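We treat protein structure as text, and this decision shapes the records that our systems exchange. Below, we set out a record of this kind in full and without editing:

***
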Amino acid sequence: QLQASGGGLVQAGGSLRLSCAASGRTFSSYNMAWFRQPPGKEREFVAAIMWSGGSTYYVDSVKGRFTISRNNAENTVYLQMSIPKPEDAAVYYCAAAVKGLYWYRASEEFYRYWGQGTQVTVSS
């Protein structure tokens, strides 16, 4: 089970950190990702992190501004949002994929477990 938190109202140019806590003992067996769904739009991939934390990947629109990280000892994955823009406003979801041939994909179907989403609003 995944529980996302940390959303809220943030000023453009500020910062916000999202957290996703996982239950269970096998968190380190999962590659993790963040997705988001802006109002009126489809859900989209944002970032992913390998099970070990050794590799990360970002969609171009957040590269250099967002940082995904994880703490396997605490069963938590984070998304640090720096210099957010109004277009970053969305419901953010964390997702987990079992270790396999690939460690990330941008498609939702790749991920087995999903958190409930946390709302991020960016004021300009």
